[in-house]
Amino acid sequence: MLLNISISITITTQRRIPEALIKEMMGSLYLEKKWLFPLLITSAVCILFLVVTSSFGVASSIHSLNSLFFFLPSHQANETTDVMERKVAPAPAPSGPVIPRFAYFIAGSKGDLEKIWRTLHAVYHPLNHYVLHLDLESSVEERNELTLRVEKQHIFNERGNVFVIQKANIITYTGPTMVAATLHACAILLKRSKDWDWFINLSASDYPLVTQDDLLYTFLEVDRNLNFIEHTSRLRWKEKKRAMPLIVDPGLYQSNKSEVFWVTPNRNLPTSFRLFTGSAWVILSHEFVEYVIWGWDNLPRTLLMYYTNYVSSPEGYFHTVACNSPEMAKTVVNSDLHYISWDIPPKQHPHILTIKDTDKMIASGAAFARKFVRDDPVLDLIDNTLLHRSPGLFTMGGWCSGKPECTELGDIYNLKPGPGAERLNRLVSQVVLNAKSSKFQCI
Predict the structure, then answer these.
(1) Fewer Cβ in 10 A, N or C end of the chain?
(2) Which pLDDT does position 256 carry in this prediction?
């Protein structure tokens, strides 16, 4: 906007001012008028910048200032912003409850390569995490072959969720080395990813009775702090056979595997904590695993020292830690979600499952079963009728794509639960309900 300036010149001396002087004065005013508008605009912008800076910070001020100059070319700025947005844009999340994730530890020994490989394919899902371990008793060739197979599997490479422990550990079934190996796997999983909800330990002799879609779907509504640990404080025959004897596991200090040996005298039962025993196969919450590994309370470390000389420590360590911690005891569910056929009273090892046990396994509603021998016909029956799994391929799931099925990744968030989810849900609902009533919790 141009300013209209009228100038009145009063001649106080009654003498006329020279015309040249008047022209000089008008020219000076014209120059001042020419620069007045830019000066006002610049002042307004500076004031606005100071106000916005004090209110929102420098970054947002620059953005606000840039928006004032909308008439300037902005193609380059928009292009840079678009690239940055594409780089940080998160993957689309599914609607509804967040799908849980499981962290598996699958362990085996000499001759278990094919069993581990089959179990891995049966329980694989792209959202889960897996740590595999063949102990030091297995041959170097077996361990190298397992590593090579994992490296060559393109889906494992794409997801990066299968890890093979390279430095094999000595495992003695009745000694504390199995607990040490399990804690090792827990530490690896915590280091590799925080994106999982439950830890599951399996042996090469375990096999699933439901698909991973069934398992993930069933646990959608389950409290993520719950720990599935089959347990009891009634030691009975284990009091004299397990708790009181003192053993030493040579696997803790020797490079060759040998059986544990007993030392004398026996020890008394502890009085500073209460012993619990149960299944060695557990489903532990992420929170509990952190508690055991990090040990912000000294209880996990103290009990680890105690169970170093305990017969079959995997059947008592996690149970005793959980039930002697006031916070963790509230989260214990008295079930391992396994179908296991034991003698009465139980012996060191359970029965070997065969086709004759199929109906009982299915009726149990369990997620897993053990103990199986390699390539038993019952495993083929489970693959065909429960898992819909073809030889050498993964268990069918909503994520599967490609030809043949499950050779490529599809939508990893797509769950297609089947009848197995109904069976498992009935079992999980019942044992969780029992835990909430505290009737079967740390008793």
Answers:
(1) N
(2) 85
The structure tokens listed for 218 are 């069933």
Query: For 89-221, where are the alpha helices, taking DSSP H only?
Result: 113-123, 140-152, 154-159, 177-192, 212-218
| Contact in structure between 141 and 111 (CB atoms under 8 Å) | no
SS3 content of the chain, % helix, strand, coil (to 5): 45, 10, 45
Checking if the pLDDT of 97 tops 90, the result is no
Please give the structure tokens belonging to residue 270. Answer: 């502890």
Cβ pair 329, 350 in contact under 8 A: no
Task: Characterise 389 by phi-psi region: left (phi > 0), alpha (psi -120 to 50), beta (else).
Answer: beta
Q: How far apart are CA 54 and CA 57, in angstroms?
A: 6
Q: Which of 303, 300, 306 is nearest to 246 (CA)?
A: 306
**Rounded distance between C-alpha atoms, residue 422 and residue 401, angstroms:** 25
Backbone angles phi, psi at 208, to 5 degrees: -75, 150
Instruction: Evaluate whether 242 touches 316 at the Cβ level (below 8 Å).
Output: yes
CA 66 to mean position of chain CA atoms: 43
Alpha carbons 188 and 190: distance in angstroms, whole number? 5
Contact 241, 265 (CB under 8 A): no
Q: Which amino acid is at 139?
A: S
Q: Can you give the pLDDT at residue 65?
A: 37
Q: What is the mean pLDDT of the chain?
A: 84
Q: What is the DSSP letter of 137?
A: T
Q: Report, at the CATH architecture level, how domain 102-436 is classified.
A: Alpha-Beta Complex (3.90)
Q: Which two tokens stand for residue 276?
A: 């619990």
Instruction: Check: CB of residue 116 under 8 Å from CB of residue 149.
Output: no
Global confidence as pTM: 0.79
